[in-house]
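Hey L., structure's done. Input below.
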Amino acid sequence: MKLGILDQMPKPKGRTAEETAAHTIEMAQLAESLGYERYWFAEHHATRGMVSSAPEIMMAAVASRTKNLKVGSGGILLPQYSAFKVASQIAQLESLFPGRVEAGVGRSPGGGEFIRKLLADDKPNQMEEYPDKLKHMIEYLDGSAKVRASPRTIDRPKLYSLGLGENSALLAGLLGIGYVFGHFIRPDRGAASFQTYRDAFSPGFMNESSARACVFIICGKNDRHAEQLAQSQDIWLLNVEKGLDSQVPTSEAAEEKIRTLTEDEAEKIKNNRRRMIIGGPETVKAELDHFSNLYQCEDWLVLCNIHDWEEKKRSLERLAGIYL
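Output:
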């Protein structure tokens, strides 16, 4: 099993953005020491609680403070940007950290229409142009366009398209690039998506297929301990989906909210648990093995958005103890 981290850089209530950024570097160094292969960064904007707004910068920061850890984006919001500029940034990273750069891009708007327009400098919505922009990015990187993105590195960085279903998997396969499925967002389309990607893949920008999935995992000392840890993530995700404070609540605040949940809120948390694997080591292994067999995928990116940073480290250590 290959394991990596997908970090949204969630800021715990009571911590600063500066503390969260410093902690992220520590987490990446710990992940490398434990045998995790890669550390990817999400892109979120105009939120109080998710600090990762420039994955390219965080990739450089982590790569410069680790030795062999691969760094990636999960993912850059390609529809809002110039494909040439994004390709150039990724090529620059590859020149600095050869063989360690994995560029993941996606078609998310990055927020509501107001935020999308800010990112795109008031340009019209280009969400439907994502396939074309992805093709152009490939051409800028492989030299088939009139202008090649510089610097012109010896080897090309890896390129992945993020998605939630068969259409995105088909696009990645046909273009000959990697595919990343967001189980942590929409867990019901994984098996079909992976099969679609495998069937569609033909060598292109990348010679070999490469597919992985992202999932929330909290690995406690036992199931009961994991359930206690998960409460802050449960309430954090509930708040995010309701457009409320996106900072990760304290355990005490989460416990208080759990006691006063409405029926609709309790049902929402129950449904959200389908996007997560929560338990002690035996439970986590059984569930992750299940999805690995279902998807025919042994390459996972893990999210763990709980309040207590020390417990987050311990969760990663327990997960590494199972597989790495």
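The chain has a mean pLDDT of 97. Residues 2-220+276-323 form a domain with the TIM Barrel fold (CATH 3.20.20.30).

-- N.
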